[in-house]
Amino acid sequence: MAKSKEKFDAEQFISSFKKKMFAPLYFFYGDETFLIEEVIDSLLEHAVDPAMKEFNLDIFYGNEIDGKKIVSLAAAYPMMAERRVVIIKDFDRVNDKDVLESYFQKPSASTILVLIANNPDFRKRPYSLIKKLGVSYEAASLRDYETIAWIDARIKKLKRSIEPPAVQLLYSYVGSSLRELTNEIEKLLLTIGAQAAITVKDVERVVGVSREFTSFELANKVAERNSSKAIEIADRLIGSGESIVGMIAVLTLHFIKLWKIQDGLRQRKSEQELAQIAGTHTFYLKSYLAQAKNYSPAEIENVFLILADADLAAKSSGDPKLIIARSITEIISGIVHKSDDVVAV
């Protein structure tokens, strides 16, 4: 597999592993550890003989090992097998990394060395050398539209389908954690049995949330300038233990999308481009376009000020119901916000 700076594609790795195509040095890093773990699981499945795993597989964390020991493990010959695998997690914490540089220059052909880091600085060695000589990929957190596409692709891979509104509802409830999404998808498939497609009702029943009372629906109602419904949803959410900080974050992200859509409209972008800019599915673009017309650019800037102060007030132990209610009222009424209004609650 050639070295590349392209987006992390777990399926690309898994496909190459199934074909017994391996590189001597892999370097994975990034926030989306679920994708990295899937790749590692596939590597172990196809590169290591289960009967000889005890002799040909070594897994260490960075605080348990140093550079010299890694070289020793990687240079060892496999026992009664074609190859061995050495995996080092938290590579950032390994001492004496400079010792590895000579190994990177000439790695063992019978060893697959996998290094996993959290926050590498590629301006420094040995990270710059690893990126040059190994197969280096970042598993970055997915954006909204990428997560929605991932859900759809994941379910198709499992020989099922899902309605577009059901995808959005599942994402609205679970969020962008691929690990949690995978767990919920497994529950859904077990529940629907032989049913070919997952519906909104399935998601509501299995995942355990009503579309009517979520932070995402709160954002929709605020963007629609529906004050009474927005305050009702906010009150219900806080009563059920929802974090006001999380609600404010969802509102902020929602209005960022509306701001981006307005900017895209001024640039005469196509609907497909607008959906990508906003990080949403084209299925939902119509509602976003309608909401974007409800607020002027100046009003959206005012929204950001309101939410920033609401976030500060929430983190200062203010009354969450009063904070969110006043914020919603200010946003929808279009009153120009003064920075000490909400903080003083």
Q: What report would you give on this structure?
A:
- This protein has 345 residues and is of the alpha/beta class.
- It folds into three domains: 10-138, 3-Layer(aba) Sandwich (Rossmann fold), CATH 3.40.50; 144-208, Orthogonal Bundle (Helicase, Ruva Protein, domain 3), CATH 1.10.8.60; 215-333, Zinc Finger, Delta Prime, domain 3, CATH 1.20.272.
- Helix content is 55%, strand content 9%.
- The chain is built from 17 helices and seven strands.
- The protein has helices at residues 10-18, 33-47, 53-56, 67-75, 101-105, 127-133, 144-157, 164-174, 178-192, 200-208, 215-223, 227-239, 244-266, 271-278, 285-292, 297-314, 320-333, and strands at residues 25-29, 57-61, 84-89, 111-117, 135-138, 161-162, 197-198.
- The strands form two sheets. The chain has a five-stranded parallel sheet, sandwiched between helices.
- β2 (57-61), α4 and β3 form a beta-alpha-beta unit.
- α7 (144-157) packs parallel to α9.
- The longest helix is centred in the last third of the chain and has 23 residues, at 244-266.
- The radius of gyration is 25 Å and the shape is elongated.
- It starts with 9 loop residues before the first helix and ends in a 12-residue tail after the last helix.
- The model is unreliable at 1-6 and 341-345 (pLDDT under 50).
Largest sheet geometry: 5 strands, parallel
Count up the helices. Answer: 17
* Helical/strand content category: alpha/beta
Overall mean pLDDT: 87
Strand content: 5-15%
Task: Pick out its properties.
345 residues; alpha/beta; Rossmann fold; Helicase, Ruva Protein, domain 3; Zinc Finger, Delta Prime, domain 3; 3 domains; 5-stranded parallel beta sheet; two-stranded parallel sheet; 17 helices; 55% helix; 9% strand; elongated
